[in-house]
Structures are given as C-alpha cells and as structure tokens.
Design goal:
394 residues, alpha/beta, 7-stranded parallel β-sheet, 4-stranded mixed β-sheet, 15 helices, 11 strands
C-alpha cells in the first residue's frame, strides 16, 4: 500500500458488511467513490441488507456465511449478474480474490479467522477490525503475513491510534503502549449491584455505538483485555510494555511512550469512521467532514488505572497473555460463549468472568499451531462454558 498513489482506486472485500463496522465502511465508500471500489461483500445471515448493499455497490460477488440462506439471496439478486458464494469456502475464496487490494475484516468473533488467514496467505492488506483473530491466532497470523507479503492495518480506534503514532518511528524506540478505555457504563456503579445488571443496561454504552457483543465486552472490559493481546502481536511488544488507563471522555484513543521520555497520543471524537477511513486510505489522509474536537469547550481529560476487582475480565486477559500457549484462544472462545448466554438471559453479568476463569483452568493442552488445532481449543472452551451455564439459575 505504501507505493499506492492518492488518486488510485482501491478494491475492497468487506467481510461483515452488514455489521456496525461494515456499514460504516460503506459510508466511507459512498464518500470516496473515485477512490474505493467494492469487489465483494460478505455477511453471516442478513440476506435482505446484504442484497440491498449489493444492488447499490454492484460487487462481483457476495458471500452469505450461513449456507442455508444462499438460495434466498440468489433469488433476491436474480438478474443482477452478481455471483453468490456461501459458507466458509465462500469467505476464503472472496478474501483471496486477485482483484482485491484491501480486505476489511469486520466479522465478529473467532468466525472471522478463516477469512483473515486466507487474505494474508494471498498477500493482501488486511484492515483488521476483528481483534479475536490475533487473540486466537496471533503467532500464526503474523507469521503468515510475513511469509506472504501480507499487511495488517488496525481498525480498532485504540490500535489505529497507536499505529498512527508509530508512523515514522523506529520499533526499537518504543518503550510502552498505553491503551485507553472509557470504563463502559459501570465505571462508577456500586459493585455490590453488579449481580442485578440487565442486558439493556449493559448494552447502553456512554460514548460509542457498537454491535451487541463488543458493547458487552466494553462493559466487562474484556474488550480492553482482548485489545491488549492484539497489541502484543500487532506491534511486536512484550506484555510488560502494555498498559491500560481508564479515560472516560474517550478523546485520547491511545498513546505511545518512547525511549527518550516523550509521549505521542492520537486524539479525536469517538467516531469509528475515522479509523476505518485511515485504514482504507493509509498511507494517505483524505479530507472528510468527520466531527472535530472542539478544544475550546473540551474541559478536562481524566485518566486512572482500571480496577481489576471491578473488571476481572481484564485481569484474566493479562493472565492469559502472560501464559500464552492456548490460553488466549480459550479466553476468547469462553468469553464469546459467555456473552452469548448473557445476551440470551441465561446467565448473569457477573457470571461472564466466572465462566471464562473456569474455562481457563479446565481446558488444557499444548500450543495450537494450526487452524484446526485452534478450532478444537475454541470448541472445548465453548463447551466448558455451556456446561457451566447449565448449572446457573437466574
């Protein structure tokens, strides 16, 4: 991408086009039709929205991961000339298209792993909004990128901030990374009331508009824990070089401390379209009407260390990162399953970290070095949480 001119068109594959990141990415495409061209779109099962997107952006193909929905999608797109692919094989094929320059990986959870690895194997630039890929398979993904000339550009606001701060800097000069966290909706809530937290309360994030899973992860601060693990692989740093600070205003998106004592920070309003656009435009910056910070009225910016007692999921993520091996994959899968159970009102909010901790202590084994091995770890961790959830009475 570094050799690409500012005026050339960039061909996109958007994995997860019907989700929060995917729909915002298409807003960016609408803003820059002369610079961005959609080659393929992929969704899990939202056929109506996917068909609507396809008819607007006219990609070569669309992918529906839920194969049972393929015929329905084909009927919706009949006569359009748009090819319909289905299942994991369809995702892998689309991510490796020769016509694609950038694969935006915005599929939630471990389900996005196969598409990312296929893109990196094909030497693509991956705009990564799926943090679970590097949490689950950080060593595998980064090695595949290095071996095949692939590139990972972060989309998460925190990692995008660090990425931007590191432009022009030598890796050896980095002393530490500081990820900021809003603290979510329960930053100041009485901990003794956490057992009564409802799904609706947990989905009410004070600053960001996101999908359900990532919003719950923000409320437990597991989201920040996953970002810590992702940062270790994205930026080739050790666990001891990563810190987290609660910053309720969500204006400072993250910081880098350098060996000479200086610190760089990237700041902006809480708007995911900015880091999405940067990942698609890098190394250029395109003029856009996104909201600006009003420095005359911003007031104070506050920072504080997070309470690991209040947010045990963050503690578990740091422990999994230090342990390495299969622990991060277990952490991720167990959390995904526990969050799903909470969203179905089958366990309480406080049961999420308990289920994850149980999986970390129960699922054991050697480090998984293949996708198949990682998927087996993923399956075992989910099953452990399901068994734990079956013993809980709401």
């Amino acid at each position: 991408m570094t050799g690409r001119s500012a005026d050339s068109t960039r061909a996109l594959c958007i994995l997860g086009s019907t989700g929060s990141i995917g729909t915002q990415a298409l807003e960016i495409v609408r803003m820059f039709p002369e610079r961005l061209h959609v080659v393929t779109l992929a969704a899990h099962r939202s056929t109506h929205l996917l068909a609507k997107q396809a008819l607007e952006f006219r990609p070569q193909s669309v992918v529906i991961a839920d194969g049972s929905k393929a015929l329905e999608l084909e009927q919706m797109l009949a006569g359009s000339g748009i090819r319909v692919l289905a299942g994991r094989e369809g995702i892998i094929e689309a991510a490796a298209y020769s016509d694609v320059d950038i694969v935006l990986a915005a599929v939630t959870g471990a389900a996005g792993l196969h598409g990312v690895l296929a893109a990196l194997r094909a030497g693509k630039t991956v705009a990564l909004a799926n943090k679970e890929t590097l949490v689950t398979a950080g060593a595998l993904a980064t090695r595949m990128a290095a071996e095949n000339g692939g590139e990972l550009i972060p989309v998460d606001s925190e990692h995008s901030a660090i990425f931007q701060c590191l432009v022009g800097e030598a890796e050896r000069t980095v002393e530490s990374l500081v990820l900021t966290a809003s603290g979510g909706p329960f930053r100041t809530r009485d901990m003794h009331t956490f057992a009564s937290i409802t799904r609706a309360e947990a989905l009410r994030h004070p600053n960001w508009s996101m999908g359900a899973k990532i919003t719950i992860d923000s409320a437990t601060m597991m989201n920040k824990g996953l970002e810590v693990i992702e940062a270790r692989w994205l930026f080739n740093v050790q666990p001891s070089q990563i810190d987290v600070l609660v910053h309720p205003q969500s204006v400072v998106h993250s910081m880098v401390v350098f060996a000479d004592g200086s610190t760089k920070a990237q700041l902006g309003v809480p708007d995911m379209k900015v880091p999405i656009q940067y990942a698609l435009s890098y190394p250029d910056r395109w003029q856009a009407p996104h909201a600006r910070v009003d420095w005359r009225t911003i007031g104070s910016l506050d920072f504080a260390p997070p309470s690991l007692e209040r947010f045990p999921c963050l503690r578990l993520a740091f422990e999994a990162l230090r342990e390495e091996g299969i622990a991060p994959a277990v952490l991720n899968a167990a959390n995904e399953q526990a969050v799903a159970l909470f969203l179905e009102d089958r366990i309480r909010f406080v049961d999420i970290p308990l289920a994850v901790e149980r999986a970390l202590s129960t699922v054991t084994g050697d480090a998984a070095t293949t996708v198949e091995g990682l998927m087996e770890v993923d399956r075992a961790a989910r099953q452990c949480v399901l068994e734990h959830g079956a013993t809980i009475t709401i």
